[in-house]
Amino acid sequence: MSGSNDDEGDADRVRLGRRLKEARDYVGLSQEEVAFALSISRPAVGNIESGSRKVEAFELNKLSELYGRTVDYLLTGDAPAEDTRVAFLARATKGLSDSDLDELARFAAFLKNSPKAKRRSS
């Protein structure tokens, strides 16, 4: 009887682990960096991502903050209504100098006005 529930829980944990790994890769963090932020070992992060270790509620909340994703997204895979790329860019540009931000803005404008961008929007 409980075997079926255990199998379902294991599958859910594997899906959660997959989403956590994808989110970590997306923001460009290493397992070591995540382990440091959570005060756990690097192998524990790998075990979470493989689904072989359960995630504590406080860890899931911290992962949500680190990855710029909602806890709901991490648990269910349902994408939030707002665009998470904005949050990612905000984190990625934090600490850049004013001149670096100006250069980044010029590059973004260049990309936006490039022939490829115009083809994609058609």
Automatic annotation (TrEMBL):
Boundaries of every HTH cro/C1-type domain copy: 20-74
Phylogenetic placement of the source organism: Bacteria, Pseudomonadati, Pseudomonadota, Betaproteobacteria, Burkholderiales
Listed Pfam families: HTH_3 (PF01381)
Name of the protein: Helix-turn-helix domain-containing protein
InterPro entries: Cro/C1-type_HTH, Lambda_DNA-bd_dom_sf, Rad_response_metalloprotease
Gene3D superfamilies reported in the protein's UniProt record: lambda repressor-like DNA-binding domains
Native source organism of the sequence: Pelomonas margarita
Domain of life: Bacteria
